[in-house]
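Q: My collaborator sent me two sequences in one message, no labels, and asked for predicted structures for both. Can we handle them in order? The first one she listed is below.
A: Yes, handling them in the order given. First sequence, followed by its structure tokens:
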Amino acid sequence: MPELPEVETIASILCQGSPEQPALPGRHILGADLLWKRTLAEPAPGEFKSRLLGQVIETIGRRGKFLYFQLTRGWLLFHLRMSGDLLVRPRGTPFATHDRLVLQLDGDIQLAFNDARKFGRVWLVEEVDEVVGNLGPEPLDEGLTADDFFIHLHTTRRQLKPLLLDQTFLAGLGNIYTDEALNLAKLHPLTPANSLTQDQAVHLLEGIRTVLGDGIARNGASIDWVYRGGEFQNYFRVYQRTGEPCPECGTPIVRITVGQRGTHFCPQCQPAYIPNGG
């Protein structure tokens, strides 16, 4: 699933453009072809098309794992889920097999939401918080201090791995960057959140920010889905490296299942949590 760095990369390319494709802000929406009705979370298809017609894309950004388009009136949001992608093509390009929604834009281009597994969703709403209002803080937001993070961790006994995957706790992390961050912080994925010391909380927040920053700098990771162009998979420390040596100590990386999610860590650098007196 695309995580914060991958979604940030897509938002940046759509907003700023690239040598291969034009930027989208300032473009008028001339029409919408909804090719898979379940892709649309809200509103109803007829209302969706009529409300989009003639709108201008003003800005494009990211909140958590959501892409948002601020329009002249309202907000268009995409969640890519497992396999979604947004592709800019010349207008008139035949629809691809996995296209679910295609927006026709001025400048003779179209924007296609392509999603092989059909899990992605699209919203057109009046206020962005109707969709993303329950998300937790952004991990890269300077307003999230180490003290705030420590206090936030100590409100729950949940294990670190499932807690960091909870988008209402912290927005944007998924399986890849959670495993990488916990390894940098030298914390076992099953450690209770409220057992962390102040120093451990600081190291965890630093680890999260480091791996996300590295991921963004390398345009995300391209592994088992259709995301294009990222290189961060070449720099994984633990994720999908079961049995390979830890880059710090050489101990083979271990894979366990936590909350039905494959979880990778170094048993030497990330020792299991032992309660006081245990």
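Q: And the one she listed second?
A: Here it is, processed independently of the first:
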Amino acid sequence: MAVNEVMMSKYQVKPLNPDNLKTYSLKERGSKVSAADFSRVCAPEASLKEFIDSLPNILGAQDFKDFLGFYQVARGKQKARIWGMGAHVIKVGLNPVLIDLLKTGWISGLALNGAGIIHDFELALVGQTSEDVGAQIKAGEFGMARETGKFLNAAIREAADEDIGLGETVGRALAGSNLPHVELSLLATAYDLNIPVTVHVAIGTDTIHFHPDCDGRALGKATLRDFYLFSSLVRELDNGGVYLNAGSAVVLPEVFLKAVSYVRNLGFPLKGFKTAVFDFLHHYRPDQNVVKRPLEGEGKGYYFIGQHEILIPLFAAALKSV
């Protein structure tokens, strides 16, 4: 090709010319982000409320402030404030924070999975919990703590014999015990405060199920009764209540969805409430069964992602910074 020769495209399709593009003034365009919604610099001596107020009114920060305000209103009006909680929340050291929320009226009902009572008991007995599964399972020693199996399975049999729920019976047993660290127990505290606790068990998922004292019939009866009790708590969400799912990816989102359907089937209104998920990953079932499906057209759900050991203490402190 000669130096001054111009290479022409062989394509029949030509680039679309922008000469006739229609434009408008940026000043006239609507925008989703405004400087008015930006964060503000927070002084070192600022209060927690001032810090929360300084967050941007955008996306997750706006959701956090909205849910915080709705939760505060729910408590002020004595509407239901129910927490469904996976055991990981206990394992990362948050019982003192949760116990304070129970004592100060920020939680009116608590639902746990089966692992929740295991870690709560172990904290009450020895002040520590959460064994090294990888190390213990090699020798078949994972879940073989004698005291855990005996204490909890005895309480479960009492629940079936007396026709009361699993959560109430374990709470009663812990509250009436002289365990060295019982002040760390969520269930004992809730029992003393007359705050309902329900426990929702999938048989075979918890270490106490393969201990010789386990009675499957008693376990099923006690946890089924707790489902019906939980449904009564869910019924009270109507017109201003709050349901919060923290750290349960499968069991409690499934239980909540079924309870919502059960309550509505029995003819009780269940509208105008809010839900939120607090977890360190975005999971399918919490998103569908807590945030979306129960609320379609009836309320709003929120999903907050962050480490439990940071996000939940922050939320708890913010609740009280009214």
